[in-house]
């Protein structure tokens, strides 16, 4: 089995195209998306179209859910981006039918997927859309939270949501991508965070995704035209300026 696992695209078409090209260059044709196609970025419509065309499995993310049901619990920046995207989906599509089909596509997204002992989910196996799994959860030793999360899984579990790539082991160590590269996660339990395509938050602005090949994990970083996405956000006028600024530093 060889697949690419992507997530947290956040309407960043420039990053998504760069990642899809990198995946194609590596000869990988099976792509799983762990959700959050929309939110924060300038091109939600285009990103939904691309993901729909290129990914075999696409899961529901909390921002996708918020676009459908309302941004409950979101901070101002995230909530206003959802409102902005609602307008873009109303006005920016080539006719209402295409918008309707995009929304229907999001509505039909499942929350989980399982294949050959691996589980795929946007946020956490315990709370599919909202719970964050973060390096701080294990920074001072094992936590009840992570113990509880591991109790929910049988093998490897791929997550996104936090935009922080890394692998959590059952002895509750957070392995950075460099330490985790090439690691066999096919035996035992692991939580693998695939990072973010469109809004990395680990101080590296390059798009991030995971290759899962014969039970091992490989992290890939992909350069894309960050300035172009930043300009699109600024020019669009309805997204908060922080959505643009944070991309430059990967925060
Ligand atoms: Zn996200």
Question: Would you write up a description of this structure?
Answer:
- With 251 residues, the protein is of the alpha/beta class.
- It has a single domain (2-249), classed as Metallo-dependent phosphatases (Purple Acid Phosphatase, chain A, domain 2).
- It has nine helices and twelve strands.
- The strands form two sheets. A six-stranded mixed beta sheet has the order 3-2-1-11-12-9. It has a six-stranded mixed beta sheet with strand order 4-5-6-10-7-8.
- Strand 7 and strand 8 (174-175) form a beta hairpin.
- The radius of gyration is 17 Å and the shape is globular.
- The two termini are 33 Å apart.
- The mean pLDDT is 95.
- The structure holds zinc ion.
- Zinc ion binds next to loops.
**Helical content band:** 25-40%
- Count up the domains: 1
Please give the number of β-strands: 12
Radius of gyration: 17 Å
Could you write a compact summary of the structure shown?
By secondary structure, the protein is α/β, with parallel strands linked by helices.
List the helices and strands and how they pair.
Blueprint: E1 2-6, H1 13-25, E2 31-33, H2 44-54, E3 57-58, H3 62-69, H4 76-91, H5 96-107, E4 112-115, E5 118-121, H6 144-151, E6 156-159, E7 166-169, E8 174-175, H7 177-180, E9 183-184, E10 190-193, E11 207-213, E12 216-222, H8 226-236, H9 241-249
Parallel strand pairs: 1-2, 2-3, 5-6, 6-10
Antiparallel strand pairs: 1-11, 4-5, 7-8, 7-10, 9-12, 11-12
Helix pairs in contact: 1-2, 2-5, 8-9
This protein binds zinc ion.
């Amino acid at each position: 089995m060889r697949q690419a696992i992507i997530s947290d695209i956040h309407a960043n078409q420039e990053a998504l195209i760069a990642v899809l090209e990198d995946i194609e260059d590596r000869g990988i044709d099976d792509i799983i998306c762990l959700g959050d196609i929309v939110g924060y970025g300038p091109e939600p419509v285009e990103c939904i179209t691309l993901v729909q065309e290129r990914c075999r499995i696409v899961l529901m993310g909390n921002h996708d859910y918020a676009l459908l049901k309302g941004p409950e619990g979101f901070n101002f920046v995230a909530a206003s981006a959802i409102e902005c995207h609602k307008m873009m989906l109303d006005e920016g599509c080539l006719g209402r039918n295409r918008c309707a089909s995009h929304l229907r596509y999001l509505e039909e997204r499942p929350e989980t997927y399982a294949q050959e002992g691996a589980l795929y989910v946007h946020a956490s196996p315990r709370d599919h859309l909202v719970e964050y799994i973060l390096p701080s959860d294990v920074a001072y030793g094992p936590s009840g939270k992570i113990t509880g999360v591991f109790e929910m899984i049988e093998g490897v579990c791929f997550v996104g949501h936090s935009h922080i790539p890394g692998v959590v082991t059952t002895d509750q160590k957070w392995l950075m991508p460099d330490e985790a590269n090439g690691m066999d996660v096919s035996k035992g339990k692991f939580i693998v965070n695939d990072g973010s395509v469109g809004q990395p938050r680990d101080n590296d602005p390059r798009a991030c995704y995971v290759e899962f090949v014969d039970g091992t994990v490989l992290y890939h970083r992909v350069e894309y035209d960050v300035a172009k996405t930043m300009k699109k956000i600024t020019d669009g006028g309805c997204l908060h300026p922080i959505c643009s600024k944070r991309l430059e530093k990967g925060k």
